[in-house]
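A quick aside before the break. I want you to see a complete sequence-to-structure record at least once, exactly as it would be stored in a machine-readable document. Don't worry about memorizing anything.
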Amino acid sequence: MYIFVARRKFNDTGLTFIAMIYPLLMDVIKYTVAGLCVVALTYYLIKPHLDRAEKFQLLDLRKAVTNQTLPLKLQAYERVVLFIERVNPANMLIRLNANEYSASELHSIVVAEIRNEYQHNVTQQIYVSPSAWAVVKRIKDDTTSIVTNAVKGLPEDASGLDLSRTILTHLSTLEENPYDIAAVMVRRDLDDIL
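That is the input. The structure line, written in tokens, reads:
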């Protein structure tokens, strides 16, 4: 019987404790739910403004990057057009003074000049479009091929002047000048960027 009374006293004490703490727990739950609702409502009201602010920051960042890279892109396109003009045999052969060399010497000099010009401008591919850079590579390869094929068709004792004539004659037989076409393609590509 003593155990039954002790248990009853404990149960009464536990019920009293729960009865005292129950309103406090209910208040904590009410305030927690109300606080979570306020936080959720605030989040959904402020989120569009935060998203808009983030978009404006991204636009400002893109604008700043564009303002910094546009001059570099323009310089790269200038260098590409300059490369096309410098490897054009009509310009290069005059610059190299073909009269002073034999055909094989001039061939070596022209091929080395094309490679040097290409290596000097290889970093421009970072700033130009892939199609513009493909034009550069094609011009380099075609010019090297034209010069190599021209020297193969000449006798071994041919002069640099003979090689120059052969190259320029070959270019004059083409319907359109490939160097002019390449420059136009690069300019069109630049117009698409601007």
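Two observations worth writing down. Residues 69-193 form one domain. DSSP finds six helices and no strands in the chain. We'll return to this after the break.
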